[in-house]
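Structure in, sequence out. Go:
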């Protein structure tokens, strides 16, 4: 597969000024050259652009600009050709068809980036950063992805591996050359101090990865409450459009309605749910069940109550469920007569609103920022580990570190301790792709878009 010359359309397929068809592999320049009118690309210098005509036999297909980039100074470390054609579905597909007929293979999703990884151009966290950059929806998410691509995140892991290699080297010297008196004597206490430092570094990276997750994925936010308390009005007010239907009829919202807002560079992915109440309507019952299930799945719950209605036992039951989750109790309709006994609400996060009168919305946003410490997120050095795969491996690494500490405290033989420390080194290698399984790599890059 790595010997094939691959091709794919790298721009969105549709009507536009320009489309780009990318080719990578040993025969890329030769294949593209065979499609041109002048056939002079074989000997041109690297990293140059050439005006050409693409022909199918003698028939003119398009007038193009062709970029020639020779290995190894390319993204894949292979010869790369990019054909800049006039945008349009027919013309772009025709050029792609010509390339396939003349010896190219259609690239799999993410195969260009996969080749960059396998050829040592980038490591695995940098490859994941490419995908994050494509999918980034805020400026902070873009900055986060750029730091991954730039290698700053990789350096966190490489520095940890470097510390572990020093520990392993000292152990090896002491095992292989015990007779030398001038080498540093490795004791369990000596290793324990080093391992404790590595543990603290891992915990710091994991702690900061929570910020990275917020920036990358946003805050999954659910608006929960009884029917007709103003949930849909709150969603519409937050996102600035009439997305959810608002009526005075109970049970209007029967399924999930979603919207997104950007709060200081962090996305709030908001879900308006069906009003929670007992009902005989089958469709509404399904919506109510979904609402209850979202309580466990959400990062933040906005629980809406009516100021002019008494608090119910069902309300108090749900408030009990929210005690150990990030939540804000919103007491809406404060322009109406007060019938709600606020003393029954134990939550410290209470915001009073009158959504129809635009009152309390800004206070709600400030409370969300406070709850998630959004203003404390360090945006100067956003070297955060954000990928779920990497975070899971790092958590496994932390468990292995604890096992090493336990072994040291129990005075296990040093050669057994060494095996466990090597396991830590290998786990960290999985994060950046120094050690990996072929199936994992195939699965990871299959998530990329075609042509990247």
């Amino acid at each position: 597969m790595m010997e094939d010359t691959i091709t794919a359309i790298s721009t969105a397929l549709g009507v536009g000024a320009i489309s780009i068809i990318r080719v990578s592999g040993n025969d890329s320049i030769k294949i593209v050259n065979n499609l041109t009118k002048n056939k002079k690309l074989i000997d041109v210098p690297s990293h140059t652009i050439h005006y050409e005509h693409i022909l199918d036999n003698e028939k003119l297909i398009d007038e193009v600009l062709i970029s020639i980039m020779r290995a190894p100074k390319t993204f894949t470390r292979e010869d790369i050709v990019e054909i800049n054609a006039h945008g349009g579905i027919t013309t772009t597909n025709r050029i792609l068809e010509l390339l396939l007929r003349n010896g190219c293979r259609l690239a799999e999703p993410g195969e260009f980036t996969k080749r960059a990884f396998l050829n040592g151009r980038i490591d695995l966290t940098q490859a994941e950063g490419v995908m994050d950059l494509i999918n980034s929806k805020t400026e902070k998410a873009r900055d986060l992805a750029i730091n991954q691509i730039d290698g700053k995140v990789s350096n966190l892991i490489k520095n940890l591996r470097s510390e572990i290699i020093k520990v392993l080297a000292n152990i090896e010297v002491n095992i292989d050359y015990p007779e030398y008196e001038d080498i540093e004597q490795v004791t369990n206490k000596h290793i324990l101090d080093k391992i404790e430092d590595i543990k603290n570094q891992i915990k710091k990276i994991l702690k900061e990865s929570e910020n990275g997750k917020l920036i990358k994925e946003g805050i999954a936010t659910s608006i929960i409450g009884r029917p007709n308390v103003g949930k849909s009005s709150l969603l519409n007010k937050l996102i600035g459009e009439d997305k959810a239907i608002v009526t005075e009829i109970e049970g209007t919202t029967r399924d999930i309605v979603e919207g997104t807002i950007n709060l200081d560079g962090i996305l709030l992915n908001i879900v308006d749910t069906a009003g929670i109440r007992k009902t005989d309507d089958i469709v509404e019952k399904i919506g109510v069940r979904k609402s209850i299930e979202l309580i466990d799945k959400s990062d933040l719950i906005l629980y809406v109550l009516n100021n002019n209605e008494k608090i119910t036992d069902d309300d108090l039951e749900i408030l009990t469920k929210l005690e150990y989750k990030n939540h804000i109790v919103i007491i809406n309709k404060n322009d109406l007569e007060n019938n709600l006994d606020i003393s029954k609400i134990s939550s410290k996060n209470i915001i009073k609103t009158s959504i129809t009168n635009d009152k309390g919305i800004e206070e709600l946003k400030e409370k969300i920022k406070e709850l998630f410490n959004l203003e404390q997120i360090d945006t100067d050095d956003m070297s955060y580990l954000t990928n779920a795969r990497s975070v899971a491996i790092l958590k496994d690494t932390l468990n292995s570190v604890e096992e090493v500490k336990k072994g040291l405290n129990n005075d296990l033989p040093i050669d057994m301790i060494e095996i466990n420390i090597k396991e830590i080194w290998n786990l960290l290698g999985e994060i950046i792709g120094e050690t990996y399984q072929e199936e994992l790599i195939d699965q990871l890059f299959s998530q990329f878009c075609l042509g990247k």
